[in-house]
């Protein structure tokens, strides 16, 4: 029997090479996906519904069989040494899948038992994780009585019971309000700061920009862009501003060559302009039109703009190849 391998020093936390998945229906969900996630990274996987995110996560977490390609976790081949690789991974699925009639403490301790962790070790570990998730005061109440945000945090706490080196979260804040979401962000930042590599799939682009250092955008089963968050955002050659106006806007807005402007309402202007354009040109045009600016702010949809643009470029490239 081949002994289980140990993680390889310096290996990526996750390495995917030419990963392909074709379902029995003929749907090609993944078309040769390759990516690396560095140890300690906080990595975002973005893409529209049906892009292949769930299939990729399913294969990495050994819930979906691949058609072809290679996956390794800290240098441990997932296909050749599944058990050893899976011991390095914690998964928080999108669906809440614990027993609602169990208590949070029991949910965590029983989960640890599935991985061979003795109860004497699991109990203090469960207390630690429930306290980190701000759930210790709920540890002995029925899980069904928890709020939606508490249930999400319980899912994360459960995944951390095996002390995974790689934590994969599939839409972890779906359906929770912004206050709860931000609280979960803090928990995830703490887990990452303690050394756990995190891969996050999310529809909340603000979430990815706030948490993640690197990202990959997937569409129609292919990676259309990947790299450092800051570098990808720097590719945007357009800046957006919102201007709050004193008084009422004129019927005809000024024409600024190279810029696009629209009135959000009678007192707000939305402007997109090339990054190289001098803002003084904008203010000169405003002054000539009798528009007085009370305040201005940058628009916060940079990542969304990048996402839409990269998806469009990827679709154009695939269309060209098909032609």
UniProtKB/TrEMBL annotation:
The molecular function terms of the Gene Ontology recorded here are: ATP binding; ATP hydrolysis activity
Domain ABC transporter as annotated: residue spans: 14-245
* SMART domains given in the database record: AAA
Q: What keyword terms does UniProt attach to this protein?
A: ATP-binding, Nucleotide-binding, Transport
Return the Pfam families for the record. Answer: ABC_tran
Q: What is this protein called?
A: ABC transporter ATP-binding protein
- Taxonomy-wise, where does this protein's organism fall, top ranks first? Bacteria, Pseudomonadati, Pseudomonadota, Gammaproteobacteria, Lysobacterales
